[in-house]
Design a protein that fits this description.
single chain, 112 residues, mainly alpha, 52% helix, 0% strand, actin filament binding
Length: 112
């Protein structure tokens, strides 16, 4: 017969904490329905997206990208994409005030 080592199930890197059925967090996870768990994950994702959308760095980067696209020249597909982004992020901008008719792009001052 060959010698085999006994293997344990689960993570063996020593970083995970052992299973404790009396741990309150473990009990809460066991009783939480899957749809609530999914809702919690979605709430966390929305918080991250909101944090990015409200960041000054994101606004500055978006403005830089738009300005560079406009200065490099544009193709109809680039203009359509920029227009969609502008309308999405600037709901108060109308279709006439965005990129149509050779007018300039409004700066992204308030991304919400």
């Amino acid at each position: 017969m060959t010698d085999t080592k006994a293997q344990t199930n689960g993570v063996s890197d020593g970083q995970s904490k052992p299973y404790d059925p009396d741990d309150p967090e473990t009990q809460r996870q066991m009783w939480r329905p899957p749809d609530i768990e999914q809702d919690m994950k979605e709430m966390e994702r929305r918080k991250r997206v909101e944090m990015i959308m409200n960041s000054q760095v994101f606004r500055e980067e978006l403005e830089r990208i738009i300005e560079s696209q406009l200065s490099e020249g544009y193709t109809p597909s680039n203009m359509a994409a920029l227009q969609q982004v502008t309308e999405l992020l600037l709901p108060h901008a109308t279709k006439q005030s965005t990129l149509r008719g050779g007018r300039g792009l409004m700066p992204v001052n308030d991304v919400r």
